[in-house]
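Duplicate of #3305? Posting structure anyway:
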């Protein structure tokens, strides 16, 4: 297996401070994927025992919550064999660290009902994974600032509970209320400008905020000149952790 990157410290891919391993190789080729270079299974560096030691040493820091596996596609069969020795070692030597894994496969249809029943490696692999975020990135369901996913179709799954119950058990990311209740989201001009080129000619100041309704992709006409209330990131993190 090859890997594209190791990110440390990483605070975007799972709860708390993390070590994130981006493996190489993905056959899904989602439209507007941000990691296109990692589609190639030969991209990046060889994943070796030294890489495993490097990751283990980073995980040993007491303030690190866990390991995140992204890609590329960690659950491609060739990559499952590559990551198995790493996550087995993590759970044997550092059982307090949690392991999250992102996959384009559908957890119920592809992972539980097929890979898990047909492939010995998958069966062992799932024993060590705490959370899977499943589903391919869908540009039509993309929302800025979602917690730990790019589009609203992606689900957070409690792997060990799902295995115990024999059916998929999902968890809340903590920010679902924003789109489930169809509330307009406040976007600051700079981030808005990146996604909506048309508005750049009418809005000039970076202090201006606009209301953007992500459900029907409409822009509210009113433009506010005073600073707007920022979405409270800390609050969302607390909700995601189930503290609030
Ligand atoms: S599954 Fe992930 S890495 Fe693969 S193409 Fe889709 S977004 Fe990119």
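Output from current build:
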């Amino acid at each position: 297996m090859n890997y594209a990157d190791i990110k440390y410290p990483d605070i975007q891919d799972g709860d708390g401070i993390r070590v994130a391993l981006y493996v190489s190789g993905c056959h899904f080729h989602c439209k507007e994927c941000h990691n296109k270079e990692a589609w190639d299974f030969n991209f990046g560096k060889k994943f070796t025992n030294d890489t495993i030691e490097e990751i283990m040493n980073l995980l040993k820091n007491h303030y690190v919550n866990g390991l995140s596996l992204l890609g590329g596609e960690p659950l491609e069969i060739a990559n499952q064999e590559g990551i198995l020795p790493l996550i087995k070692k993590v759970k044997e030597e550092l059982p307090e660290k949690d392991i999250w894994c992102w996959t384009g496969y559908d957890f119920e249809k592809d992972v539980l009902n097929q890979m898990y029943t047909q492939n010995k490696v998958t069966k062992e692999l799932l024993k060590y994974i705490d959370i899977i975020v499943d589903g391919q990135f869908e540009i039509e369901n993309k929302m800025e600032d979602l917690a730990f996913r790019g589009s609203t179709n992606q689900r957070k799954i409690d792997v060990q509970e799902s295995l115990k119950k024999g059916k998929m058990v999902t968890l809340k990311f903590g920010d679902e209320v924003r789109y489930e209740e169809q509330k307009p989201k406040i976007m600051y001009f700079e981030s808005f400008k990146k996604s909506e080129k048309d508005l750049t000619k009418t809005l000039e100041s970076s202090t201006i905020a606009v209301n953007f309704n992500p459900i029907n992709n409409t822009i509210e006409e009113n433009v506010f000149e005073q600073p707007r209330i920022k979405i409270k990131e800390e609050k969302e993190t607390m909700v995601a952790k189930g503290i609030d």
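Confirmed duplicate; merging threads. Residues 26, 28-30, 33, 35, 71-73, 104, 136-137 surround iron/sulfur cluster (CB under 6 Å). Residues 197-209, 221-232 have pLDDT under 50 and may be disordered.
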